[in-house]
Amino acid sequence: MTTTWLIASNNAGKSRDLIACLAYYGLTARQYLTVAPRLEFPVETTSYVDNAVAKARFGAQQLGVPVIADDSGLEISALPDLLGVTTARDLGVAVSGFDRNQEILTALRDIPDNERQALMRATLAAAWPDGRTLAVQASITGYIASYQFGRYSGGFDRIFWLPRYGRTFAELPATWRIPLTHRGRAALKLITKL
What mean pLDDT value characterizes the chain? Predict the structure, then answer.
């Protein structure tokens, strides 16, 4: 197995989270921007797997080393035409995580708590310069909270409520949170197949 993998993403927050998830399971990775100039990854499609594989394959070809890419999204059953594989495009990548969360909370303001079911999905793809790829998916179900809570992580973790724990992901320290998250579960699947 390669000692250090590069993360093929321009999203610093997502890269940090993925690096932490991989490290939790013993794999060393770092954001590609620490060793190369910024890349413009392929335009996203409507498939998590296609998006992750395209980013990983492009990164491996451009950088000449093995890389891991992520495509993830939030799916909310009460908002079926918003989010999912197009989450970043729907809410705007330039908008802060806090503001994205507020937009979701506003859209759900008249939806009762028991109808705020949500799913966070992550697809990770590993790619090598010779063209080989490997993709895995994982998800977690929960609910969307009424307010943003937590300080241990950001983004959708601040509104993703886990009834079993009575907390959002952002209220759980990394040692509890990582094995439960969609990205943490996908990281474990990927590592076991590398």
Answer: 90
Q: Which amino acid is at 154?
A: G
From the list 50, 71, 110, 157, the catalytic residue is 71
Residue 167 φ/ψ, nearest 5 degrees:
-150, 165
Residues of the chain scoring pLDDT < 70: 1-3, 82-98
User: Which residue from 122, 105, 116, 121 is spatially nearest to 158, judged by alpha carbons?
Assistant: 105
H/E element, 62: helix 48-63
DSSP-derived 3-state class of residue 90? helix
Q: Which residue type, as a one-letter code, is found at position 131?
A: G
Q: Is 71 assigned a catalytic role?
A: yes
Q: How far is CA 47 from CA 123, 159, 177, in A?
A: 10, 24, 26
Q: How far is CA 121 from CA 65, 82, 86, 189, in A?
A: 26, 15, 12, 13
Phi (first) and psi of residue 127, to 5 degrees: -140, 145
Q: Which residues of 39-74 are buried (b: 16+ CB within 10 A; e: fewer)?
A: bebeebeeebbbbbbbbbbbbbebbebbbbbbbbbb
Q: Which H or E run contains 14? A: helix 12-24
pTM score, whole prediction: 0.90
